[in-house]
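A brief tutorial aside. Many learners find it easier to grasp structure tokens once they have seen a single protein encoded end to end. The record that follows does exactly this for Ubiquitin-like domain-containing protein. Read the sequence first, then the structure, and try to relate runs of similar tokens to stretches of the chain.
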Amino acid sequence: MYVTTGTNDILLTINDYVNKETASYQLTDISNNTLISEIIEKIKVLKNYTYSPTDLVLYFARVECKLSEKLSTYNKSNRKTIKLELYLSKLITINVRTLQSCGTGTSRCIPFWSFCFRQNIKIKIIDTCEVRVLKQKIYNLTDESTSYEQNETLQYIYIYIYIFRISLN
């Protein structure tokens, strides 16, 4: 049987990316009415994690599961076996170096001074942060417009991201 009957018959397969080594394990006795926060608590007990529930993030496919939601929010087809991914939500520090250019298309040039006077910016992001959020933080720190989609000068700034140091706080 591939569809749940409503009782505690869902089998969760958790791909755990919290530690450096990936682990995979299963949780049984789960129903569609189980809260995501309860699933995280079961994982904490099983793996002896001391993290707070907000430090652990569960993903269903590419969707981040919210702690206050039920599993049925993400399991709309009532599948009996579900795969979830568990990540540790901590901050990552990355260094961003900007490189300015002028012109458009094939007539784009990079002034010599832009190599000498590149901006170095340190940004802290959550490791589950989306690319658009990262771009917005970079644009805010480089004193560009708050809306990176509408700013014309941003198309002339190349952002090279070098991960010099990744520090999990």
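Self-check: The two ends are 44 Å apart (CA to CA). If you spotted this yourself, you are ready for the next section.
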